[in-house]
Amino acid sequence: MRFRRIVSLLLATAFILSACSNQSAQEKIYNHLEKAVSLEDGFRKQQEPLMELEEKEENLYNQIIDLSMEEFDKIKELSKEAASIVKEREEKLKLEKESIDAAKEEFDKIKPLIEDLTEEQSEAKKLANQLVETMENRYGAYQDLYKAYQNALDLDLELYEMLQQKDLTQEELQKQVESINASYNKVIEANKQFNTYTNEYNELKKQFYDASGLNVTYEDSAESEAKESNDQSEETK
Questions:
Q1: 3-state secondary structure at position 114
Q2: I need a labelling partner for 25 at 20 to 30 A (CA). Which of 89, 114, 197, 216 fits?
Q3: 168 half-sphere exposure, CB direction, 13 A CA radius
Q4: What is the pLDDT of residues 197-217, one digit of tens each?
C-alpha cells in the first residue's frame, strides 16, 4: 500500500495590513486571518518531506517482499531501516499538527471581532460567521486526518517489527497488510474531507474580503495545490 497525500492549502494575500490602533474590525479580522495562513507554513513545509519519506519506505518495503527467507538477515536489516523512516514520518506529522493548532488558535481571535462589524456590513458579518463554521469543520477534519494517519503509522511500525521475526507466518503478514490498507483508506477519506473544507474556506475568505471592501491580491501557489487536491493515489502492498 502506498498513499500520496495532496492537501489543499489556505490562500494567502500578497500583503498584510500594518497594525495600528484605529484599524477597522474588518482590517483586524484580515490580519488575524493572514497570520493564521503564515502559521500554517510549518504544515506546508512538511508535505514534501513526508512524501519523500513515504517513497523511500515504499522502496524498502518492495525490496523486503522480493527477498526469500534464506535472506532473512537482509530482511531484518531493511525492516529496521523502514521502521526508522516510519518514526521520521511520525515526527513530521507532529510538526504538521503543531502548525495547524497554532493557526487555529490565531484564527479564533476573529470571533469577538465579528460582532464589531456594523449593520451596513451585514453581508460581511454573515460571511465571517460562515468562515468560523467552515474553519471549525476544517479543523475537525484535520483532527480526524491526524488520528487516521497516526494509526496507519502505528500499523506500519508493527509490520516492520513483525518482519524481523523469523517465525512470522504468511497468514499473520496478510492480516497486518489488510489492516494497514484499511487504515490508509480512512486516511484518504479524511484527507478528502479536509481538502473540501479548505477549498470552501478559501472561497469564503475571498467573498468576505470583497464584502468588506478590502482590496487584496492572492498568491496562486495554494490554488494550484487545490486543483490537485482530489488526485489521491493508492496501491496495495
A1: helix
A2: 197
A3: 20
A4: 999 999 999 999 999 988 787
Q: Cβ–Cβ contacts within 10 Å for residue 14, how many?
A: 9
Closest-CA residue to 40 (of 192, 185, 221):
221
Residue 191 near residue 146 (C-beta atoms within 8 A): no
Phi then psi for residue 3, to 5 deg, are -120, 130
Query: Position of cell 484518504?
Result: 188
For 116, other C-beta atoms within 10 Å of its C-beta total: 13
Closest by alpha carbon to 217, among 9, 11, 6, 10? Answer: 11
Q: In the Cβ-directed half-sphere of 128, how many Cα atoms lie within 13 Å?
A: 28
How far is Cα 134 from Cα 140, in angstroms, rounded to an integer? 10
The cell 492480516 sits on which residue? 175
Of 146, 142, 135, 139, residue with least CA distance to 202: 135
pTM score, whole prediction: 0.86
Could you report the per-residue pLDDT of 30-76, keeping only the tens digit for each?
999 999 999 999 999 999 999 999 999 999 999 999 999 999 999 99
Q: Alpha-carbon distance 158 to 177, whole Å? A: 10
Pick the closest to residue 146 from 199, 89, 88, 61 (CA basis).
89
71 φ, ψ to 5°?
Answer: -110, 35
Interior CA angle at 154 toward 94 and 78, to 5°?
105
The two counts, helices (H) then strands (E), for the chain are 7, 2
Q: Which residue has the cell 460567521?
A: 129
| Burial zone of 81 (CB within 10 Å; 0-12 exposed, 13-18 middle, 19+ buried) | middle
